[in-house]
Amino acid sequence: MKLLDGDIWISESQKLKVETVYGDFVIDGKNAFISMDLKKDQVTIRLGNARALIRDRSGDVVPLNFGEEMWVGALTRDGKQLRGAPNPVQWSWFVKEWARKFPYPEKILASKQEIRKISKERVETSADIQQEVVDRKI
């Protein structure tokens, strides 16, 4: 599948490959949202109960886990890929977009608690990693 512009919501997949101008995403699981923004020159992936492998145009492969999000941008002149670091999904945004795009609200409620738990774990893990980095610099 190719995403040229706009958004795609993947409710469930097993190793679905989504190709973009910034890189390729292989999604495995439930509830992934990929948003291409040509004005910002980037694509953002947000995961609920899914995992993803991101292969950017510089050849790097980045794993993304449950409840994480990351953006990938254009290649620089020296061949390096612009990209963010994996972060916990912004929970309120994710649920709002999910409810707007997904036609079965009763299924959203069934999975909401599970995704909230995943998101909370990702926030705690991210905070621990950031604290380790700060401790090393002090």
Task: Give the topology, please.
Elements: E1 6-19, E2 23-37, E3 42-56, E4 61-64, E5 68-75, E6 81-83, E7 87-88, H1 91-101, H2 105-137
Summarize this, please?
This protein is an alpha+beta fold.
How many helices does DSSP assign? 2
Q: Helicity level, as a percent range?
A: 25-40%
- Strand percentage lies at 35-45%
Tell me the radius of gyration. Answer: 15 Å
Average pLDDT level: 81
Please tell me about this protein's structure.
With 138 residues, the protein is α+β, with helices and mostly antiparallel strands. Helix content is 32%, strand content 44%. The protein is built from 2 helices and 7 strands; from the N terminus they run βββββββαα. The protein has helices at 91-101, 105-137, and strands at 6-19, 23-37, 42-56, 61-64, 68-75, 81-83, 87-88. Strands 1, 2, 3, 4, 5, 6 and 7 form a 7-stranded antiparallel sheet that branches. Helix 1 runs antiparallel to helix 2 (105-137). The model has no long low-confidence stretch (mean pLDDT 81).
List keywords for this structure.
single chain; alpha+beta; 2 helices; 138 residues; seven-stranded antiparallel beta sheet
